[in-house]
Amino acid sequence: MKYIDEFRDGDLAQKIAANIAVEVNQRRSYHLMEFCGGHTHAISRYGIVDLLPDNVRMIHGPGCPVCVLPVGRIEYAIQLAQIPHLILCSYGDMLRIPTANGTSLQKIKAQGADVRIVYSCADAVSIAQRNPERPVVFLAIGFETTTPPTAVAIKQAHALGLTNFSVFCNHVLTPSAISHILQSPEVRQLGLMSLDGFIGPAHVSTVIGSRPYEYFAEEFQKPVVIAGFEPLDVMQAILMLIRQLNEGRAEVENEFTRAVLPEGNIKAQLLVAEVFELRRTFEWRGLGLVPYSALKIKSCYADFDAEQRFQIPMTSIADNKACECGAILRGVKQPQDCKIFGTVCTPENPIGSCMVSSEGACAAYYSYGRFRDAYPATKVS
Amino acid sequence: MCLAIPAQVEQLTTEDHAIVNLGGVRKEISLALVENIVPGDYVIVHVGYALQKLDQVEAERTLALFSEMSAMNDDKGNENDESQS
Amino acid sequence: MHSGKVKRGYTRPLDLKNGHIEMNHGSGGRAMTQLIDQLFLAAFDNDFLRQRNDQACFSCTSGRMVIATDSHVITPLFFPGGNIGSLSVHGTINDVVMSGARPHYLAASFILEEGFPLADLKRIVDAMAQAAQAAGVPIITGDTKVVERGSGDGVFITTTGIGMVPEGIHISGENAKPGDKILLSGTMGDHGIAVMSLRDNLSFHTHIESDSASLHDLVATMIAAVPDIHVLRDPTRGGVATALNEIAHQSAVGMMLYEKKLPVRQQVSAACEFLGLDPLYVANEGKLIALCAPDDADQLLTAMRLHPLGNQAAIIGEVIEDSHCFVQMETRFGGKRVVDWLSGEQLPRIC
């Protein structure tokens, strides 16, 4: 498969690994956060950690939109699905997320709710067209990559004059999440948590471009390298970050030049701006309330906003007390630091969403990495 | 983030859609988020939509970068003699 | 002009083109007998069934016998490369032969949903008959029940198979030993992708067909080449990864796979890329895993490759000591990862 296989070549991986080994400064360590869940997955799945020197540590950031969705909003989706005759369409990722009392979309599907997995939100629109007498709700999640398709779907539904289609919008924004981490006490207070640089998300960046990251690089003096989706991209980005840190630079660099322009995809951005606007604040699982970090549907498209259509109270549900997803999402703790990791909380019985989503830090570590010796808990520098 | 894959546009169909081909698997996707796509182009596909055209020149350039020896490697020669069975 | 007299002993034949299953097809009366005669017996026809008993009587030489049973509840019922009928025959034959046994007979019972089209049932039954005949394993007894509309998925089939293990053959999941080589008879994930391409909201177009097939002849060839095979297993639901994890736990060993060696069709890889699936966990229906002593591996591989159902066979890894019973894999990068038990069905993902 062109543009995929070449970017997974094992020999090239060894070359980049050799370059990294030669260029790291042995007298320091490098703490690099990969923000994108896809990168977390690539790192685990290809065993990239085995190709890195010991003094290069990867920290998993909150780049998984499934992991950061608060339980209260999943409850809301479950209540929607239980409305008689309603069809709830969702991406597969959401089906197994557990709520506080252990239920999930998959479980209520088993009990008779009409929950359907779709590959694309366009499929949800088609379902609405084919079932004009039934309300159809699309559960929209995702960062900036996934938002433009939802915008197109809403516009399409509008153009078709569909009166039974609406979207439960949970789209969130990447720069806000990065800001939040960088401003958190653990990072700001020197010595509590080392965070030297970021691997910027791949496909979010194709939409938003590389410019939005310049603020972080400058304000917080941390280098950012936007990396493509494939494991060689991730390794090259790690090398580029190491080079920046060695040279004392804090810039935004783009490794994913084949798909990311400085300005991103303007057409997609304009479409999003037409349909969505910023929420003043939004709850992120594990991070609390984050200002201007999420989108809601504009009032001109209110007919397609499930939160306007359906009178269901939104609840804020606290996480299980033992669950450390919050700290793990912020990169402060590692899965092994959580008391219930691997015992009470497993992929079969996930307590928090870091375990249920395949790219959540806990699931990735459990599935791919728990056979390694655990890294020591976050060290004080 | 999010799962997206580069696929080649085979033919344009009606109303802003196209058939893409990845490794022999064909799927119809939407071109609503991109412009000036012609058959033969590669696009990044996410949840049934093309997000961006893939710049093939840049792709080759990036691959070439991967092969570059580190400037600090000049004296060391090729350390890579690991072979997988 | 006809006198209007009804011909003696005349009953209207089953309408196999446009008819449907009705409750009385399961109630043991004339309608059920007609269904059995005109549909099942007509297709499966053999000496045992012609006796029309509730059981089949057969003699066998003494030795170790094997029995296996499977229920088939898949949807869709029809898929590229087969249907629930052919799948049920192949699947149970495969379960029997994974012990090294020669399969002898099959039993088949059907739970039919009221309203199920007879034309579809005929297609399914004919496919079963074909599969059974090709394998030389007749269906010699069976049962039919009908459930009310809404209580089933059209048709559920349970097949039970009987076979005999030749002298000196001891093949079982707990026989794996550190050092054993792991062989896979062909490409992974064909069946799962063929079936998935039909799912309503996934719609991609591929030429991949299910690999559903009976493996008795391949196994016989393999045993002839290497009688001392340690383990045989056909990876079905959950894919190669699940089967290997099962064996690892049964034998209390670990495993090391080599990603570069895993055989996968390009279209299966591509479909998995679209959906975010890992071919290691996608279902197969016509493949087997074999574990043998390292000295026997090359000979076994050669024998497999000479057989049409094993022509893409490969050595994909080896058994190691490991008290955790992890199945590990050396990725194409040289890094390592664990190939874990699947927790539930793999779902398409966007992240």
**CATH class annotation of the largest domain in chain C:** Alpha Beta
Computed over alpha carbons, the radius of gyration of chain B is: 18 Å
Question: What is the CA–CA distance across the termini of chain B?
Answer: 33 Å
* Strand neighbour order, sheet with most strands of chain B: 3-2-1-4-5
- Tally of DSSP β-strands of chain B: 5
Largest beta-sheet details of chain B: 5 strands, antiparallel
Query: Helix/strand/pairing class of chain C, anyone?
Result: alpha+beta
Q: In what range is the share of β-strand residues of chain C? A: 15-25%
Overall pLDDT of chain C:
92
Number of structurally distinct domains of chain B: 1
Strand content of chain B: 35-45%
How many β-strand runs of chain C?
A: 13
**Main sheet properties of chain C:** 7 strands, mixed
Order of helices and strands of chain B: EEEEEH
**Percentage of residues in helical conformation of chain C:** 25-40%
Question: What is the third-level CATH name, the topology of the largest domain in chain C?
Answer: Phosphoribosyl-aminoimidazole Synthetase, Chain A, domain 2
Runs of chain C in which pLDDT lies below 50 for 5 or more consecutive residues are none
Polypeptide structure, described:
The complex is a heterotrimer of chains A (381), B (85) and C (351). Chain A has a domain at 71-173 and 264-309: Rossmann fold (3-Layer(aba) Sandwich), CATH 3.40.50. Chain A contains 16 helices and 11 strands. Chain A has helices spanning 10-23, 37-45, 71-81, 105-110, 121-130, 147-160, 174-183, 185-188, 203-208, 214-220, 231-246, 266-275, 306-309, 325-329, 353-356, 361-369, and strands at residues 30-34, 56-60, 87-90, 114-117, 136-142, 165-171, 197-200, 224-226, 252-254, 276-284, 288-297. In chain A, strands 2-1-7-8-9 form a 5-stranded parallel sheet. The N and C termini of chain A lie far apart (44 Å). By secondary structure, chain B is mostly beta strands. Chain B has a single domain, classed as SH3 type barrels (Roll), CATH 2.30.30. Chain B contains 1 helix and 5 strands; from the N terminus they run E-E-E-E-E-H. In chain B, strand 4 (42-46) and strand 5 form a beta hairpin. Chain B is elongated and about 55 Å long. By secondary structure, chain C is α+β, with helices and mostly antiparallel strands. Chain C folds into 2 domains: 23-165, 60s Ribosomal Protein L30, Chain: A (2-Layer Sandwich); 173-338, PurM-like C-terminal domain (Phosphoribosyl-aminoimidazole Synthetase, Chain A, domain 2), CATH 3.90.650.10. Helices cover 29% and strands 21% of the residues of chain C. Chain C is built from 9 helices and 13 strands. In chain C, strand 12 and strand 13 (336-338) form a beta hairpin. In chain C, helix 1 packs parallel to helix 4 (118-135). Chains in contact: A-B, A-C, B-C. At the A-B interface, helix 1, helix 2, helix 5, helix 6 and helix 9 of A face strand 1, strand 4, strand 5 and helix 1 of B.
